């Protein structure tokens, strides 16, 4: 699948260490927690390619990643960080937002 320049979103999320298991990645996608280029991913078999921008909603965080490479395995965290560019917005605690208003 890597030869074609595309990879399943559940595999990519697992290999990039965004989630702890491939089954959790599939559940996240099917629950609507992942967008590929602003389009909601509906199936774990949806594919990503180089340059795609993923918006991932995890509990209390929103991650925005640009895909830089496709994974071949779930390696160490240092290797996983090379798979994406982190475009995530800076998170500010809700208490700070309330006091600024």
TrEMBL record:
CDD domains: S4. Residues 7-72 form the RNA-binding S4 domain. InterPro entries: S4_RNA-bd, S4_RNA-bd_sf. SUPFAM superfamilies: Alpha-L RNA-binding motif. Pfam families: S4. This is RNA-binding S4 domain-containing protein. SMART domains: S4. The lineage of its organism: Bacteria, Pseudomonadati, Pseudomonadota, Alphaproteobacteria, Hyphomicrobiales. PROSITE patterns: S4 (PS50889). Keywords: RNA-binding. Signal peptide: none annotated. It comes from Mesorhizobium denitrificans. One of its GO terms (molecular function) is RNA binding.
